[in-house]
Each structure stands twice: as structure tokens, then as C-alpha cells.
Amino acid sequence: MRQFSSLLLTTFVATLLIGCAPQALDSEGDDIISTVASAATDTPASTDQPASSDTPPPAAGSSQVYTGTVTGAGNYRLFELGPGTRGDEWDIVPDGMLDGPFVVVLFDADENLLMRTYMSYSKSLHHLLRADTDLVYLGIMPPIYGQGGSFKLKATFQAGQSVPVPTRQVVWLNFGEGRNVQVHTRDPISFAPFDAAVIGEAYAGHTQELKDVILAEMQADYAGLDVVILSSDNGPPPEGVHSVIHFGGDESGLLGLADNVDNYNRNLSQDAMVYIENFAPYWTMQLTPEEMAVMIANVASHELGHLLGLYHTCDPDDLMDTTGSAWDLAENQSFLRGPLEESVFATGWEDSPRLLAQTVGSKSGGSAKTLAWRKSSTYKAIRRFAEEELHHSCGTCLSLDHE
């Protein structure tokens, strides 16, 4: 067993920043679960009683107005819109001026996130139900960096709309050089081909091994889904539409960055970065080449998750988590149903497997990776010392709700 000095661990207080989407994430406010019980449900302005799950949706083309006030971190309001059927279309728009920007979401009956937007007087939320649900919820809260206040929202309903067919996503992993590569709103960067030696001397000579494990782990993460993951080791970029994940360079301490959170993957041609040079500080973890490759693969799969429409969660076993330590990031993670990270919304869940299947479709002959995987001796021996010292959050989502 490899031994660590507790002094070394406690003096290495590093923050991993793994990429997200243009809308800001941090960790203020109460625990995500504890906010559920304290939240109030407001009453639609047009009725004397809250909507009931026994109440049918409004007539096609009709609108209903919802008003209220919500202020302070961790506070939110939920409205019941009624049952939903696949093909139902909801448009939520500000009805007049808002006191400030708000985060507005739609949930299904199990409080699984369906759609999220950062709403100001000029922005709205549009969603087309991909599956039946006993109830649709409308949720509203102040953004992490906002005060909230009074709101007035108009919800318009249409039934029987055409539902988009899930679309295959092709992804090319660029382990080669990059020239003037721009992701999100960052300045373009250039970088040399992937070389494991930049992470640390222990990984020199293991470049191909790391690349092979990264590819295999990402393919396992997306097994059972219609996502084709190709490597630059096996050929040039595919001719058809595809997204690219680049491996190289560094950027302000981030481990990864994605162009955006693309709800239901409307844009099949986007970019993400995994900043290989920024894994160098984690030589102190004394990970094997395979374990380091798993950490890198988890970051890459996380960034691809954003390009496919996924937000952050609070479950260290979930690939979209931002709450675990670096040791969690170096272990096996999978797409799970996990509680939302509080700046995404102060209650609710993200059912990643279901959302991905609705977005890209399922693929016969494959099954998603499970958590039946080894836990390294390094992890078990050191985690108790490093749980607080080695955290990670997200890069793209650092600007999640910033315009």
C-alpha cells in the first residue's frame, strides 16, 4: 500500500474546477434536501385555490398567470400546472416586468428536472414534454447572485405537438494538437499533443495507456445510448456533424469547460476542453496511470454531459456531481438520478439516464456502466485525510446564470 503524509495532504488545499455551462454555480445556502420541506406553494393569480393533480391542463391555447414573491438563497416557489401528456407544450413568459432575474424550471410528478432557464424580462422558458407525467410543476427561485423579489409569469399550454426524435451524437476525442481552440467565451488557446508526462514524472511513458483508458471509460459511461465516441488515434475528425472534446492546455485552474448546457442537445456540433496540464497538482494523490486516466475520463464525460443538456448534481457517484472530493473524481462514476446542485435549483432531481435516452436515444446491444467496480487501496487509506482538502466544482457553470 502506498503511504501518504498527512502533512502533505493537509497542506494541499486544491480546488478542482470541472466545466459546465453558461450559468453560475456556487455553494451558498442551505442543504438542498432541507429546503424542500420549508418551501411554500403559491396560488395561481387567476384562482382561489392551488391547482390540483385532479385538475386537467388548461384548454389548448389558454393561459394562466402565476404571481408571488420569493427572496433569499435556498428559497423557491412551486406551482402545480396539472397533468402532462407527451407532446404537451408549455411556454412560460414574464407577464410584465420582473423585480429581477429568476431561475425558472419545470419538473415532472417526481420532481425530475424537465427544463431550466435563467429568466429576465426578455427571456422565456419553452418546453415540449417527452413523456407522460401525472403532474407538471412550475418552479421559481432567485439565482445564486440575485436577490429575487416579486414575479408574475404567464403559462400558455398547447397539446398534441410533434416530439423531436432522439438524435445520435458523434463525439471526437482530440488527443492531438489544437490551434486557436475556443470554448464557451474564453480566449482561444493552442496546445501540444497529449503527453502524460505533463501531469507528472510518474506518468511519463504512459501516454498511450492513459488515452486508451480514457476512451474505454467514456465509451462505458455512454454505453446503451446512441453516442458514438471516436478517438484521434484512430483517424481524423469524422466528416459529418459532431462535437469535439479536446485534451490539452490549461485555463485558470479549471479541469474542464463546455460550450454550454445544451438542453436536449439542440446543437450537435460543439466543443469542450479537458485541461490536461491542470491535473499536474494531483501527483500528490499518487494515482496509478489507470486511476489518473479514470479521473480524466470522468471530467470528459461530465463535460460531454453538459453538451447533451445535463446540469450539476449532489451525488459523488454521479458523473454530474460537484460536491465530492478529488478522490471521488478518481473513482468510478456513472450517470444516475441525483439531487440537483442547489444553484441549479433548490429542490428536485436530475434523472440523467432518462434525459440522455430522450435526447440521443438508446442503442441496442449495450448497457450502461454500473458502480460494480474496484475501490483502490489508495482511496480507502487516504480519503479520511483528504475529504475536505481536495474538492472540485465546475468551470462552465461558474458563469451559469451570467448574461
Task: Explain the overall architecture.
With about 400 residues, this protein is α+β, with helices and mostly antiparallel strands. The chain folds into two domains: about 5-25 and about 165-400, no CATH class; about 40-160, Jelly Rolls (Sandwich), CATH 2.60.120.380. Helices cover about 15% and strands about 25% of the residues. It has seven helices and 19 strands. The strands form six sheets. The protein has a five-stranded mixed sheet, with helices on one face. Strands 2-9-4-7 form a four-stranded antiparallel sheet, with no helix packed on it. Strand 5 (about 100-105) and strand 6 form a beta hairpin. Helix 3 packs across helix 4 (about 290-305). The radius of gyration is 22 Å and the shape is elongated. The N and C termini lie far apart (about 50 Å).
List the helices and strands and how they pair.
Elements: H1 6-11, E1 14-18, H2 34-38, E2 63-71, E3 77-84, E4 89-94, E5 102-107, E6 113-119, E7 125-128, E8 133-141, E9 148-158, E10 169-174, E11 178-181, E12 189-191, H3 207-221, E13 227-231, E14 243-247, E15 256-258, E16 271-274, H4 289-307, H5 326-329, E17 337-339, E18 349-351, H6 352-360, H7 377-386, E19 390-394
Parallel strand pairs: 1-19, 10-13, 10-14, 14-16
Antiparallel strand pairs: 2-9, 3-8, 4-7, 4-9, 5-6, 5-8, 11-12, 15-16, 17-18
Provide mean pLDDT, rounded. Answer: 83
How many E-type strands? 19
Kindly, what is the distance between the CA atoms of the first and last residues, rounded to a whole number of angstroms? 49 Å
Described by the principal axes of the CA atoms, the overall outline is elongated
Can you give the helix content as a percent range?
10-25%
Order of helices and strands: HEHEEEEEEEEEEEHEEEEHHEEHHE
Low-pLDDT regions: 1-16, 19-52, 371-390
Count of the domains: 2
Report Rg. 22 Å
Number of helices: 7
Describe the largest sheet: 5 strands, mixed
Label the structural class. alpha+beta
- Strand percentage lies at 25-35%
Record the strand order, biggest sheet.
13-10-14-16-15
